[in-house]
Amino acid sequence: MSNTPSNLKYAKSDEWFDPATGKVGITDYAQNQLSDIVFIEIFVETGETIEAGKAIASVESVKASAEIYSPAGGKVAAVNKDLANKPESLNSDPFGEAWMIQLEGASTGDVMDAAAYEKHCEERAH
Amino acid sequence: MTYIPISPKERDAMLATVGVKSLDDLFEAVPAKHRFPKLNLPPALTEMEAQAELADVANANENVRGDLVSFLGAGMYHHYIPSVIDHMLRRGEFYTAYTPYQPEISQGTLQAIFEYQSLMSALTGMDVSNASHYDGATATAEAVSLAYAQFRGKRKKVVMSPSLHPQYRAVVNTYEQGLGVETAGDTESNLNLSPEAFVSQVDEDTCLVIVQYPDFFGRVYDYTKLIEAAHAKGALVCVVANPTALAMFKTPGEMGADIVVGDGQPLGIPMWFGGPSVGFFTTRKSYVHKMAGRLIGETVDNKGQRAYVLTLTAREQHIKRERATSNICTNQGLLALASAIYLSVLGKTGLAQVANLCYQKAHYAANTLGKLDGYKLKFNDTFFHEFVLECPAPAEEVNAHLLEHGILGGYDLSRDYPSLKNHLLIAVTEMNSKEEIDMLAEVLAEVHHE
Q1: Does ipTM exceed 0.85?
Q2: N or C end of chain A, less CB within 10 A?
Protein backbone atom coordinates (compact mmCIF):
# COMPACT_ATOMS: atom_id res chain seq x y z
CA MET A 1 0.00 0.00 0.00
CA SER A 2 1.42 3.34 -1.02
CA ASN A 3 1.85 6.30 1.25
CA THR A 4 -0.39 9.25 0.25
CA PRO A 5 -0.06 12.32 2.54
CA SER A 6 -3.41 14.09 2.88
CA ASN A 7 -1.99 17.64 2.75
CA LEU A 8 -0.87 17.26 -0.88
CA LYS A 9 -2.58 17.53 -4.26
CA TYR A 10 -2.03 14.84 -6.89
CA ALA A 11 -1.93 14.64 -10.67
CA LYS A 12 -3.20 11.66 -12.63
CA SER A 13 0.32 11.19 -13.96
CA ASP A 14 1.58 10.50 -10.39
CA GLU A 15 3.15 13.78 -9.31
CA TRP A 16 2.37 15.64 -6.10
CA PHE A 17 2.09 19.35 -5.36
CA ASP A 18 2.27 20.88 -1.90
CA PRO A 19 0.02 24.00 -1.75
CA ALA A 20 1.75 25.12 1.47
CA THR A 21 5.33 25.13 0.15
CA GLY A 22 4.85 25.11 -3.63
CA LYS A 23 7.04 22.01 -3.96
CA VAL A 24 6.57 19.37 -6.66
CA GLY A 25 7.70 15.74 -6.75
CA ILE A 26 6.68 12.20 -7.68
CA THR A 27 4.45 10.00 -5.54
CA ASP A 28 5.29 6.92 -3.55
CA TYR A 29 3.16 4.92 -6.01
CA ALA A 30 5.25 6.28 -8.90
CA GLN A 31 8.63 5.44 -7.35
CA ASN A 32 7.36 1.98 -6.50
CA GLN A 33 6.25 1.38 -10.10
CA LEU A 34 9.54 2.63 -11.53
CA SER A 35 11.64 0.55 -9.08
CA ASP A 36 15.31 1.51 -8.47
CA ILE A 37 15.80 5.01 -9.85
CA VAL A 38 19.31 5.64 -11.18
CA PHE A 39 19.05 8.97 -12.95
CA ILE A 40 17.11 12.22 -12.85
CA GLU A 41 17.49 15.24 -15.04
CA ILE A 42 15.47 18.37 -14.26
CA PHE A 43 14.90 20.52 -17.36
CA VAL A 44 13.55 23.73 -15.87
CA GLU A 45 15.62 26.47 -14.29
CA THR A 46 15.09 28.88 -11.44
CA GLY A 47 13.30 32.03 -12.62
CA GLU A 48 11.46 30.29 -15.45
CA THR A 49 7.67 30.51 -15.56
CA ILE A 50 5.96 27.24 -16.38
CA GLU A 51 2.42 26.09 -17.05
CA ALA A 52 0.73 23.19 -15.34
CA GLY A 53 1.32 19.97 -17.32
CA LYS A 54 4.77 20.96 -18.55
CA ALA A 55 7.46 18.26 -18.62
CA ILE A 56 9.94 19.32 -15.96
CA ALA A 57 12.16 16.28 -15.57
CA SER A 58 13.13 12.88 -16.89
CA VAL A 59 13.66 9.90 -14.62
CA GLU A 60 15.34 6.60 -15.42
CA SER A 61 15.18 3.48 -13.32
CA VAL A 62 16.86 0.14 -13.95
CA LYS A 63 13.92 -0.92 -16.07
CA ALA A 64 11.98 2.14 -17.18
CA SER A 65 12.10 5.78 -18.12
CA ALA A 66 9.48 8.43 -17.40
CA GLU A 67 8.82 12.10 -18.01
CA ILE A 68 7.64 14.09 -15.01
CA TYR A 69 4.93 16.72 -15.54
CA SER A 70 4.29 19.59 -13.16
CA PRO A 71 0.81 19.40 -11.54
CA ALA A 72 0.90 23.19 -11.12
CA GLY A 73 2.05 26.25 -13.00
CA GLY A 74 3.93 29.28 -11.70
CA LYS A 75 7.36 30.76 -11.37
CA VAL A 76 10.16 28.32 -10.52
CA ALA A 77 11.60 29.62 -7.24
CA ALA A 78 14.00 26.75 -6.64
CA VAL A 79 15.30 23.56 -8.27
CA ASN A 80 16.57 20.67 -6.16
CA LYS A 81 20.06 20.42 -7.66
CA ASP A 82 21.20 17.83 -5.08
CA LEU A 83 18.75 15.32 -6.46
CA ALA A 84 20.91 14.54 -9.51
CA ASN A 85 23.63 13.24 -7.17
CA LYS A 86 21.28 11.01 -5.19
CA PRO A 87 18.50 9.79 -7.47
CA GLU A 88 17.97 6.90 -5.04
CA SER A 89 16.30 9.36 -2.64
CA LEU A 90 13.36 9.37 -5.07
CA ASN A 91 12.78 5.80 -3.88
CA SER A 92 13.50 6.35 -0.20
CA ASP A 93 11.87 9.74 0.43
CA PRO A 94 9.70 10.85 -2.52
CA PHE A 95 7.65 13.34 -0.51
CA GLY A 96 10.58 14.85 1.42
CA GLU A 97 14.22 14.97 0.37
CA ALA A 98 13.35 14.13 -3.23
CA TRP A 99 11.27 17.20 -4.11
CA MET A 100 12.10 18.41 -7.62
CA ILE A 101 11.12 22.03 -8.00
CA GLN A 102 9.48 24.71 -5.86
CA LEU A 103 6.92 27.06 -7.42
CA GLU A 104 5.97 30.60 -6.47
CA GLY A 105 2.47 31.97 -7.03
CA ALA A 106 1.41 28.54 -8.19
CA SER A 107 -1.94 27.60 -9.62
CA THR A 108 -2.78 23.94 -9.94
CA GLY A 109 -3.91 22.24 -13.09
CA ASP A 110 -6.06 19.14 -13.11
CA VAL A 111 -5.33 17.73 -9.62
CA MET A 112 -7.13 15.61 -7.03
CA ASP A 113 -7.02 15.16 -3.27
CA ALA A 114 -5.37 12.23 -1.46
CA ALA A 115 -8.53 10.12 -1.28
CA ALA A 116 -9.24 10.46 -5.00
CA TYR A 117 -5.61 9.72 -5.84
CA GLU A 118 -5.58 6.59 -3.70
CA LYS A 119 -8.63 5.39 -5.58
CA HIS A 120 -6.88 6.22 -8.88
CA CYS A 121 -3.92 4.05 -7.82
CA GLU A 122 -6.10 1.18 -6.65
CA GLU A 123 -7.99 1.10 -9.93
CA ARG A 124 -4.76 0.64 -11.84
CA ALA A 125 -3.69 -2.21 -9.59
CA HIS A 126 -6.42 -4.43 -11.04
CA MET B 1 21.64 -20.52 -37.53
CA THR B 2 18.83 -22.81 -38.72
CA TYR B 3 17.40 -22.21 -42.14
CA ILE B 4 13.72 -23.14 -42.16
CA PRO B 5 12.37 -23.94 -45.62
CA ILE B 6 8.71 -23.90 -46.41
CA SER B 7 6.90 -27.08 -47.42
CA PRO B 8 4.03 -27.01 -49.96
CA LYS B 9 1.70 -28.09 -47.16
CA GLU B 10 2.71 -25.13 -44.97
CA ARG B 11 2.44 -22.78 -47.93
CA ASP B 12 -1.08 -23.92 -48.71
CA ALA B 13 -2.08 -23.56 -45.04
CA MET B 14 -0.83 -19.98 -45.02
CA LEU B 15 -2.54 -19.15 -48.29
CA ALA B 16 -5.79 -20.59 -46.93
CA THR B 17 -5.41 -18.51 -43.75
CA VAL B 18 -5.07 -15.24 -45.64
CA GLY B 19 -7.87 -16.35 -47.95
CA VAL B 20 -6.27 -16.73 -51.37
CA LYS B 21 -6.08 -19.80 -53.55
CA SER B 22 -2.61 -19.58 -55.05
CA LEU B 23 0.66 -17.66 -54.99
CA ASP B 24 -0.45 -15.88 -58.18
CA ASP B 25 -3.52 -14.63 -56.32
CA LEU B 26 -1.36 -13.49 -53.41
CA PHE B 27 0.85 -11.39 -55.66
CA GLU B 28 -1.98 -10.06 -57.78
CA ALA B 29 -1.24 -6.46 -56.74
CA VAL B 30 2.19 -6.73 -58.35
CA PRO B 31 2.04 -6.12 -62.14
CA ALA B 32 2.38 -9.46 -63.94
CA LYS B 33 5.53 -8.52 -65.84
CA HIS B 34 7.35 -7.79 -62.57
CA ARG B 35 6.01 -10.83 -60.75
CA PHE B 36 8.33 -13.64 -61.76
CA PRO B 37 10.84 -11.97 -64.09
CA LYS B 38 12.95 -14.33 -66.13
CA LEU B 39 16.44 -14.09 -64.73
CA ASN B 40 19.11 -14.10 -67.36
CA LEU B 41 21.41 -16.52 -65.56
CA PRO B 42 24.10 -18.69 -67.10
CA PRO B 43 23.71 -22.47 -66.82
CA ALA B 44 24.42 -23.95 -63.40
CA LEU B 45 28.03 -24.82 -62.58
CA THR B 46 29.44 -27.63 -60.52
CA GLU B 47 31.08 -26.69 -57.24
CA MET B 48 34.53 -27.18 -58.76
CA GLU B 49 33.70 -24.93 -61.71
CA ALA B 50 32.18 -22.27 -59.45
CA GLN B 51 35.26 -22.32 -57.20
CA ALA B 52 37.53 -21.83 -60.19
CA GLU B 53 35.46 -18.98 -61.56
CA LEU B 54 35.24 -17.18 -58.20
CA ALA B 55 39.00 -17.63 -57.72
CA ASP B 56 39.53 -15.99 -61.11
CA VAL B 57 37.39 -13.03 -60.09
CA ALA B 58 39.15 -12.73 -56.71
CA ASN B 59 42.59 -12.93 -58.32
CA ALA B 60 41.77 -9.88 -60.42
CA ASN B 61 41.93 -7.84 -57.21
CA GLU B 62 45.24 -6.40 -56.16
CA ASN B 63 45.74 -6.42 -52.43
CA VAL B 64 48.33 -5.12 -50.00
CA ARG B 65 49.26 -8.62 -48.84
CA GLY B 66 51.77 -9.23 -51.58
CA ASP B 67 50.48 -7.56 -54.75
CA LEU B 68 51.01 -3.91 -53.91
CA VAL B 69 53.14 -1.80 -51.61
CA SER B 70 50.76 0.64 -49.94
CA PHE B 71 51.20 4.23 -48.81
CA LEU B 72 47.47 4.85 -48.72
CA GLY B 73 45.79 5.80 -45.44
CA ALA B 74 43.29 8.64 -45.03
CA GLY B 75 41.28 6.80 -42.40
CA MET B 76 42.17 3.14 -43.01
CA TYR B 77 45.65 1.88 -42.24
CA HIS B 78 47.69 -1.16 -43.14
CA HIS B 79 48.91 -2.64 -39.87
CA TYR B 80 50.15 -6.06 -38.90
CA ILE B 81 47.38 -8.29 -37.56
CA PRO B 82 48.51 -10.99 -35.13
CA SER B 83 47.12 -14.36 -36.22
CA VAL B 84 45.63 -15.07 -32.80
CA ILE B 85 42.88 -12.53 -33.57
CA ASP B 86 41.40 -14.57 -36.41
CA HIS B 87 41.69 -17.79 -34.43
CA MET B 88 39.59 -16.33 -31.63
CA LEU B 89 37.13 -14.45 -33.84
CA ARG B 90 36.27 -17.61 -35.74
CA ARG B 91 34.87 -19.27 -32.67
CA GLY B 92 31.16 -19.69 -33.34
CA GLU B 93 30.21 -18.38 -29.89
CA PHE B 94 31.29 -14.89 -30.89
CA TYR B 95 29.65 -14.84 -34.30
CA THR B 96 27.21 -12.00 -33.91
CA ALA B 97 27.44 -8.24 -34.16
CA TYR B 98 24.73 -7.93 -31.53
CA THR B 99 24.90 -7.36 -27.82
CA PRO B 100 23.18 -10.21 -26.06
CA TYR B 101 20.16 -9.47 -23.91
CA GLN B 102 20.27 -12.55 -21.70
CA PRO B 103 23.24 -12.33 -19.34
CA GLU B 104 22.48 -15.86 -18.08
CA ILE B 105 23.72 -17.39 -21.33
CA SER B 106 26.09 -14.68 -22.60
CA GLN B 107 28.75 -14.06 -19.98
CA GLY B 108 31.61 -14.64 -22.43
CA THR B 109 30.39 -12.14 -25.01
CA LEU B 110 29.43 -9.62 -22.33
CA GLN B 111 32.82 -9.89 -20.66
CA ALA B 112 34.57 -9.46 -24.02
CA ILE B 113 32.63 -6.23 -24.65
CA PHE B 114 33.33 -5.07 -21.09
CA GLU B 115 37.06 -5.62 -21.68
CA TYR B 116 36.82 -3.73 -24.98
CA GLN B 117 35.12 -0.80 -23.19
CA SER B 118 37.79 -0.78 -20.45
CA LEU B 119 40.60 -0.79 -23.03
CA MET B 120 39.06 2.04 -25.07
CA SER B 121 38.50 4.16 -21.95
CA ALA B 122 42.13 3.69 -20.95
CA LEU B 123 43.42 4.44 -24.44
CA THR B 124 41.43 7.67 -24.83
CA GLY B 125 41.81 8.78 -21.21
CA MET B 126 38.04 8.94 -20.73
CA ASP B 127 35.68 7.57 -18.06
CA VAL B 128 33.33 5.40 -20.06
CA SER B 129 33.05 3.69 -23.43
CA ASN B 130 30.00 2.23 -25.11
CA ALA B 131 29.97 -1.19 -26.76
CA SER B 132 30.92 0.43 -30.11
CA HIS B 133 29.33 1.79 -33.28
CA TYR B 134 29.57 0.86 -36.96
CA ASP B 135 32.63 2.96 -37.73
CA GLY B 136 34.45 6.17 -36.88
CA ALA B 137 32.19 8.37 -39.00
CA THR B 138 28.92 7.16 -37.44
CA ALA B 139 30.47 7.38 -33.97
CA THR B 140 31.25 11.04 -34.76
CA ALA B 141 27.64 11.60 -35.80
CA GLU B 142 26.50 10.01 -32.52
CA ALA B 143 28.67 12.56 -30.68
CA VAL B 144 26.54 15.25 -32.32
CA SER B 145 23.40 13.49 -31.10
CA LEU B 146 24.78 13.40 -27.57
CA ALA B 147 25.65 17.10 -27.58
CA TYR B 148 22.31 18.03 -29.12
CA ALA B 149 20.47 16.02 -26.45
CA GLN B 150 22.66 17.39 -23.66
CA PHE B 151 21.37 20.91 -24.38
CA ARG B 152 17.87 19.59 -25.05
CA GLY B 153 17.96 20.97 -28.58
CA LYS B 154 18.50 24.53 -27.41
CA ARG B 155 21.94 24.73 -29.04
CA LYS B 156 21.75 23.79 -32.69
CA LYS B 157 25.15 24.51 -34.13
CA VAL B 158 28.00 22.06 -34.69
CA VAL B 159 31.38 23.50 -35.64
CA MET B 160 33.68 21.14 -37.55
CA SER B 161 37.38 21.73 -38.01
CA PRO B 162 38.54 22.27 -41.61
CA SER B 163 40.90 19.32 -41.12
CA LEU B 164 38.22 16.84 -40.03
CA HIS B 165 38.04 13.85 -42.41
CA PRO B 166 35.81 15.05 -45.29
CA GLN B 167 33.88 11.77 -45.29
CA TYR B 168 33.17 12.12 -41.56
CA ARG B 169 31.90 15.63 -42.24
CA ALA B 170 29.62 14.22 -44.96
CA VAL B 171 28.30 11.48 -42.68
CA VAL B 172 27.56 13.99 -39.91
CA ASN B 173 25.64 16.15 -42.39
CA THR B 174 23.59 13.20 -43.64
CA TYR B 175 23.00 11.65 -40.25
CA GLU B 176 21.83 14.80 -38.51
CA GLN B 177 19.74 16.37 -41.27
CA GLY B 178 16.47 15.44 -39.57
CA LEU B 179 17.50 16.91 -36.21
CA GLY B 180 17.66 20.49 -37.41
CA VAL B 181 21.34 20.74 -36.54
CA GLU B 182 23.24 23.44 -38.37
CA THR B 183 26.81 22.55 -39.27
CA ALA B 184 29.53 25.16 -39.58
CA GLY B 185 33.18 25.08 -40.55
CA ASP B 186 34.29 24.45 -44.11
CA THR B 187 37.14 22.77 -45.98
CA GLU B 188 38.18 25.98 -47.74
CA SER B 189 39.69 27.73 -44.73
CA ASN B 190 43.36 28.49 -44.64
CA LEU B 191 44.72 25.11 -43.63
CA ASN B 192 47.89 26.61 -42.19
CA LEU B 193 46.06 28.38 -39.38
CA SER B 194 46.36 27.07 -35.84
CA PRO B 195 43.43 25.02 -34.55
CA GLU B 196 42.40 27.88 -32.26
CA ALA B 197 41.68 30.00 -35.35
CA PHE B 198 38.25 28.57 -35.91
CA VAL B 199 37.15 29.07 -32.31
CA SER B 200 35.67 32.37 -33.50
CA GLN B 201 32.86 30.32 -35.06
CA VAL B 202 31.92 28.86 -31.67
CA ASP B 203 29.08 30.78 -30.06
CA GLU B 204 26.28 30.46 -27.49
CA ASP B 205 24.28 28.42 -30.00
CA THR B 206 27.06 25.84 -30.47
CA CYS B 207 26.51 22.43 -28.87
CA LEU B 208 29.60 20.70 -30.24
CA VAL B 209 33.02 21.39 -31.70
CA ILE B 210 34.63 18.53 -33.63
CA VAL B 211 38.39 18.24 -34.21
CA GLN B 212 40.53 15.37 -35.40
CA TYR B 213 43.68 14.02 -33.71
CA PRO B 214 45.97 13.58 -35.58
CA ASP B 215 44.02 15.68 -38.08
CA PHE B 216 43.12 14.54 -41.59
CA PHE B 217 46.54 15.68 -42.79
CA GLY B 218 48.34 13.72 -40.09
CA ARG B 219 49.20 16.76 -37.97
CA VAL B 220 49.25 16.53 -34.19
CA TYR B 221 48.08 19.47 -32.11
CA ASP B 222 47.50 19.87 -28.42
CA TYR B 223 43.84 20.91 -28.34
CA THR B 224 43.85 21.93 -24.66
CA LYS B 225 43.47 25.66 -25.42
CA LEU B 226 40.85 25.10 -28.10
CA ILE B 227 38.84 22.94 -25.68
CA GLU B 228 39.10 25.61 -22.97
CA ALA B 229 37.88 28.26 -25.40
CA ALA B 230 34.94 26.10 -26.52
CA HIS B 231 34.04 25.33 -22.90
CA ALA B 232 34.07 29.05 -22.16
CA LYS B 233 31.21 29.34 -24.67
CA GLY B 234 29.46 26.43 -23.03
CA ALA B 235 29.99 24.03 -25.95
CA LEU B 236 31.17 20.43 -25.73
CA VAL B 237 34.19 19.20 -27.68
CA CYS B 238 34.52 15.91 -29.53
CA VAL B 239 37.97 14.68 -30.56
CA VAL B 240 38.09 12.17 -33.42
CA ALA B 241 41.22 10.20 -32.63
CA ASN B 242 43.45 7.63 -34.29
CA PRO B 243 43.80 4.89 -31.65
CA THR B 244 47.38 3.96 -32.62
CA ALA B 245 48.53 7.55 -32.15
CA LEU B 246 47.05 7.58 -28.64
CA ALA B 247 49.77 5.18 -27.52
CA MET B 248 52.34 7.88 -28.29
CA PHE B 249 50.76 11.28 -27.71
CA LYS B 250 48.84 13.01 -24.91
CA THR B 251 45.31 11.58 -24.68
CA PRO B 252 42.29 13.75 -25.58
CA GLY B 253 41.08 12.97 -22.05
CA GLU B 254 44.10 14.82 -20.66
CA MET B 255 43.26 17.78 -22.94
CA GLY B 256 39.79 18.03 -21.44
CA ALA B 257 37.74 16.56 -24.30
CA ASP B 258 34.11 15.71 -23.53
CA ILE B 259 33.76 12.97 -26.13
CA VAL B 260 36.45 10.95 -27.90
CA VAL B 261 35.49 8.84 -30.91
CA GLY B 262 37.31 7.21 -33.76
CA ASP B 263 37.68 4.26 -36.05
CA GLY B 264 38.99 1.06 -34.51
CA GLN B 265 40.21 -0.36 -37.84
CA PRO B 266 43.91 0.22 -37.02
CA LEU B 267 43.44 -2.14 -34.05
CA GLY B 268 43.63 -5.53 -35.69
CA ILE B 269 41.05 -5.15 -38.45
CA PRO B 270 41.99 -5.57 -42.13
CA MET B 271 41.38 -2.72 -44.57
CA TRP B 272 39.27 -5.09 -46.64
CA PHE B 273 37.70 -2.90 -49.32
CA GLY B 274 36.96 0.02 -47.03
CA GLY B 275 34.95 -1.76 -44.36
CA PRO B 276 33.34 -3.08 -42.24
CA SER B 277 35.03 -1.46 -39.32
CA VAL B 278 34.26 -0.56 -35.73
CA GLY B 279 33.68 2.89 -34.24
CA PHE B 280 34.70 3.59 -30.68
CA PHE B 281 32.86 6.11 -28.52
CA THR B 282 34.07 7.27 -25.12
CA THR B 283 32.92 10.12 -22.91
CA ARG B 284 32.81 11.57 -19.41
CA LYS B 285 30.71 9.89 -16.76
CA SER B 286 28.49 12.96 -16.56
CA TYR B 287 27.28 12.41 -20.15
CA VAL B 288 26.71 8.68 -19.96
CA HIS B 289 22.92 9.03 -19.78
CA LYS B 290 22.94 10.83 -23.11
CA MET B 291 25.26 8.35 -24.78
CA ALA B 292 23.91 6.18 -27.59
CA GLY B 293 24.63 2.49 -27.93
CA ARG B 294 24.94 -0.41 -25.57
CA LEU B 295 26.84 -0.32 -22.32
CA ILE B 296 28.08 -3.38 -20.43
CA GLY B 297 28.69 -3.17 -16.70
CA GLU B 298 30.30 -5.43 -14.13
CA THR B 299 28.27 -6.55 -11.15
CA VAL B 300 27.80 -9.56 -8.88
CA ASP B 301 25.16 -12.26 -9.22
CA ASN B 302 23.00 -13.66 -6.41
CA LYS B 303 25.90 -15.90 -5.30
CA GLY B 304 28.30 -12.97 -5.08
CA GLN B 305 30.17 -14.00 -8.23
CA ARG B 306 31.44 -11.47 -10.75
CA ALA B 307 29.00 -11.08 -13.63
CA TYR B 308 28.40 -8.83 -16.64
CA VAL B 309 25.11 -7.24 -17.70
CA LEU B 310 23.67 -4.59 -19.96
CA THR B 311 23.78 -1.39 -17.91
CA LEU B 312 21.73 1.83 -17.89
CA THR B 313 19.44 0.45 -20.57
CA ALA B 314 16.61 2.84 -19.65
CA ARG B 315 18.38 5.56 -21.70
CA GLU B 316 18.05 3.43 -24.85
CA GLN B 317 15.40 3.79 -27.51
CA HIS B 318 13.60 0.51 -26.84
CA ILE B 319 12.60 1.95 -23.45
CA LYS B 320 12.89 5.71 -23.86
CA ARG B 321 11.34 5.68 -27.33
CA GLU B 322 11.33 9.08 -29.06
CA ARG B 323 12.97 10.75 -26.07
CA ALA B 324 16.16 8.73 -26.43
CA THR B 325 19.33 10.40 -27.72
CA SER B 326 19.64 8.02 -30.64
CA ASN B 327 17.90 5.11 -32.30
CA ILE B 328 21.20 3.26 -32.52
CA CYS B 329 21.78 0.39 -30.13
CA THR B 330 23.54 -1.96 -32.49
CA ASN B 331 27.21 -2.37 -31.87
CA GLN B 332 29.92 -3.94 -33.96
CA GLY B 333 30.52 -6.78 -31.52
CA LEU B 334 32.75 -9.06 -33.54
CA LEU B 335 35.11 -6.29 -34.66
CA ALA B 336 35.11 -4.66 -31.25
CA LEU B 337 36.27 -8.04 -30.00
CA ALA B 338 39.02 -8.01 -32.65
CA SER B 339 40.20 -4.64 -31.31
CA ALA B 340 40.11 -5.90 -27.74
CA ILE B 341 42.18 -8.98 -28.64
CA TYR B 342 44.63 -6.81 -30.61
CA LEU B 343 45.13 -4.46 -27.66
CA SER B 344 45.46 -7.35 -25.21
CA VAL B 345 47.99 -9.18 -27.35
CA LEU B 346 50.14 -6.10 -27.98
CA GLY B 347 49.77 -4.64 -24.53
CA LYS B 348 50.72 -1.10 -23.57
CA THR B 349 54.34 -1.55 -24.64
CA GLY B 350 53.53 -3.30 -27.90
CA LEU B 351 51.07 -0.64 -29.02
CA ALA B 352 53.58 2.08 -28.15
CA GLN B 353 56.14 0.21 -30.26
CA VAL B 354 53.75 0.06 -33.22
CA ALA B 355 53.11 3.79 -32.86
CA ASN B 356 56.81 4.53 -32.62
CA LEU B 357 57.62 2.43 -35.70
CA CYS B 358 54.91 4.26 -37.67
CA TYR B 359 56.20 7.60 -36.47
CA GLN B 360 59.88 6.90 -37.23
CA LYS B 361 59.23 5.38 -40.64
CA ALA B 362 56.84 8.17 -41.63
CA HIS B 363 59.44 10.73 -40.63
CA TYR B 364 62.14 8.93 -42.61
CA ALA B 365 59.78 8.94 -45.60
CA ALA B 366 58.86 12.62 -45.19
CA ASN B 367 62.51 13.52 -44.91
CA THR B 368 63.44 11.55 -48.01
CA LEU B 369 60.50 12.62 -50.18
CA GLY B 370 60.64 16.27 -49.10
CA LYS B 371 64.19 16.50 -50.49
CA LEU B 372 63.28 15.19 -53.95
CA ASP B 373 63.45 17.64 -56.81
CA GLY B 374 60.02 19.09 -57.49
CA TYR B 375 58.49 17.77 -54.23
CA LYS B 376 57.80 19.64 -51.04
CA LEU B 377 56.20 18.92 -47.68
CA LYS B 378 53.08 21.03 -47.36
CA PHE B 379 53.15 21.50 -43.58
CA ASN B 380 55.92 21.86 -40.99
CA ASP B 381 53.82 20.88 -37.97
CA THR B 382 54.36 17.84 -35.76
CA PHE B 383 52.88 14.80 -37.45
CA PHE B 384 52.30 11.14 -36.67
CA HIS B 385 52.31 8.63 -39.55
CA GLU B 386 50.77 10.62 -42.36
CA PHE B 387 51.90 13.78 -44.17
CA VAL B 388 51.03 15.93 -47.18
CA LEU B 389 53.40 15.93 -50.14
CA GLU B 390 53.19 18.58 -52.82
CA CYS B 391 53.96 16.98 -56.21
CA PRO B 392 55.18 18.41 -59.51
CA ALA B 393 52.18 16.88 -61.32
CA PRO B 394 48.50 16.23 -60.55
CA ALA B 395 48.17 13.61 -57.80
CA GLU B 396 46.13 11.37 -60.08
CA GLU B 397 48.97 11.15 -62.61
CA VAL B 398 51.55 10.54 -59.90
CA ASN B 399 49.44 7.71 -58.48
CA ALA B 400 48.95 6.16 -61.93
CA HIS B 401 52.71 6.09 -62.40
CA LEU B 402 53.25 4.59 -58.94
CA LEU B 403 50.69 1.88 -59.65
CA GLU B 404 52.64 0.83 -62.73
CA HIS B 405 55.48 0.10 -60.33
CA GLY B 406 53.31 -1.87 -57.93
CA ILE B 407 52.88 1.00 -55.48
CA LEU B 408 49.53 2.10 -54.14
CA GLY B 409 50.17 5.82 -53.77
CA GLY B 410 48.75 8.34 -51.35
CA TYR B 411 45.29 9.83 -51.08
CA ASP B 412 44.54 12.45 -53.76
CA LEU B 413 43.62 15.50 -51.67
CA SER B 414 42.20 17.47 -54.60
CA ARG B 415 39.14 15.23 -54.31
CA ASP B 416 38.08 17.12 -51.19
CA TYR B 417 40.26 20.23 -51.10
CA PRO B 418 40.33 22.11 -54.42
CA SER B 419 43.17 24.24 -53.07
CA LEU B 420 45.31 21.10 -52.68
CA LYS B 421 45.71 20.22 -56.32
CA ASN B 422 48.89 18.14 -56.85
CA HIS B 423 48.89 17.08 -53.18
CA LEU B 424 49.12 13.53 -51.91
CA LEU B 425 48.41 12.39 -48.37
CA ILE B 426 51.06 9.72 -47.70
CA ALA B 427 50.63 7.18 -44.91
CA VAL B 428 53.50 5.05 -43.55
CA THR B 429 53.03 2.26 -41.04
CA GLU B 430 55.18 -0.46 -39.46
CA MET B 431 54.39 -2.56 -42.56
CA ASN B 432 56.49 -0.33 -44.82
CA SER B 433 60.17 -1.28 -44.97
CA LYS B 434 62.99 1.20 -45.57
CA GLU B 435 63.46 -0.45 -48.99
CA GLU B 436 59.85 0.25 -49.89
CA ILE B 437 60.18 3.88 -48.87
CA ASP B 438 63.37 4.24 -50.90
CA MET B 439 61.61 2.63 -53.86
CA LEU B 440 58.75 5.11 -53.50
CA ALA B 441 61.30 7.94 -53.58
CA GLU B 442 62.94 6.53 -56.71
CA VAL B 443 59.69 6.19 -58.61
CA LEU B 444 58.54 9.66 -57.54
CA ALA B 445 61.84 11.07 -58.79
CA GLU B 446 61.13 9.45 -62.18
CA VAL B 447 57.76 11.20 -62.35
CA HIS B 448 59.50 14.52 -62.03
CA HIS B 449 62.05 13.79 -64.72
CA GLU B 450 59.56 12.55 -67.26
Answers
A1: no
A2: C
